[in-house]
Design a protein that fits this description.
It comes from Microterricola viridarii. InterPro entries: DUF4440, NTF2-like_dom_sf. This is DUF4440 domain-containing protein. By secondary structure, this protein is of the alpha+beta class. It has a single domain, classed as Nuclear Transport Factor 2, Chain: A, CATH 3.10.450.50. The protein is built from three helices and seven strands; from the N terminus they run ααββαβββββ. Strands 1, 2, 3, 4, 5, 6 and 7 form a seven-stranded mixed sheet that branches. α1 runs antiparallel to α2. The N and C termini lie far apart (38 Å).
Length: 126
């Protein structure tokens, strides 16, 4: 059975989302995040799309590197869940966080014909 082409599409979108966040490209990042997007950070804070992208735009969150490993994708109708390990280096609230490994779990939904991230959670690997 051939692979569902949506799997690679979701992987490509996640890589594009990460690149937009590292580059601080808020217009590109905004298009890839649903209006009701929510992020649960590694320290347990909940951020809305406006809070998250606003912090990136203001430099409060400055991703210096975000390198994902293989991205696993599970499709369910008009939704997809992804999981992967990544190495991140970030400046958060003026504090440099050295390159560290994290597990990421994200949910995507098809909204008006476009896939968008709706939920994201990151957990530090210790």
């Amino acid at each position: 059975m051939p692979a569902d082409p949506r799997v690679e599409q979701i992987r490509d979108l996640e890589r594009a989302r990460l690149q937009a966040l590292v580059e601080g490209d808020i217009a590109a990042a905004s298009a890839l995040h649903a209006d009701d997007f929510q992020l649960v950070t590694p320290i347990g804070a909940l951020l809305t799309k406006a809070q998250y992208l606003g912090a990136v735009a203001a430099g409060e969150i400055d991703y210096l590197a975000w390198e994902p490993g293989p991205i696993e994708v599970r499709l369910a109708g008009e939704g997809a869940t992804i999981r992967y390990r990544a190495e991140l280096e970030v400046v958060f609230g003026g504090h440099h966080v050295a390159r560290t490994g994290y597990w990421h779990t994200d949910s995507y939904e098809l909204n008006d014909g476009a896939w968008q991230a709706v939920w994201s959670q990151a957990t530090e690997i210790r």
